[in-house]
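Hi U.,

Before I forget, here's the chain from the pilot set. I'm dumping it here mostly so it's searchable later in email.
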Amino acid sequence: MAGMATVAQWIEGARIRTFPNAIAPVLAGTGAAAGLDGFDLPIAVLALAVSMFLIIGVNFANDYSDGIRGTDDDRVGPFRLVGSGSARPAAVRTAAWICFGLAAIAGLGVVFLSGQWWLLAIGALCIAGAWFYTGGKRPYGYAGFGELAVFVFFGLIAVLGTMYVQAGKISGFGIGAAVGVGALSSAVLVANNLRDIPSDRVTGKRTLAVMLGDRDTRTLYVTLALVPFLITVLIGLRNSWVLLGFAALLPLVVPLRAVITGAQGRALIPALRDTGLAMLIWAIITGGALAFG
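Structure:
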């Protein structure tokens, strides 16, 4: 019987370790916009609010949807509100939609200040993508499309959208930053789903990791984790300050070793945190280099 979750449990359920996935694209996009003399602080702050509320909302939505399906009943990963019985499913679902609503309000502010009203459709698409990842009768996260969605929503759309609403245009550097952030953001999910392959197979959750199998999922993680550094080299041919982004390799050493050497279960949990940290460092350095370099 579900009880009344504590404040600490609600905070844990929001999954703070995923916040770099929301912060990094806004930093990278804002840096790219500043490089075109398009920096706009109020819009940047509102874009960050949109991204933050969306990721908290999607975390609660996943908690709710996975919880009611029973896929979190024997979970190795982080604490879940519904799966643990700490909170009523309806309360977690409500929390998710409150966050989506706050993201929509912040998004309206971005649209109003930028004058780009067509972006309302993109905002609606983002909220739908957040809910139907594990929600609805046919969640696309259960059909192997989770990593692609993360790449699109928290990579391409988040970075280039942040850039566009400030600068009014996008650049090749911005596209490179979007691909780099999207690749690392997807790598976080790959690490998560690699850890959960055994339990997901039992519950019928067909993630991309379940479809690929253990070995190929590990190869995918390594590939995605290294993509941003190829981007660093390419952008570095025009802006040498971007090469400082190789510092983001440092927090990737441990998770890359864990994935390559076959770590499983709880041993993979730190990989999510460290990959997110690498993404944040890469976005800060790359965004700063694009802004001032």
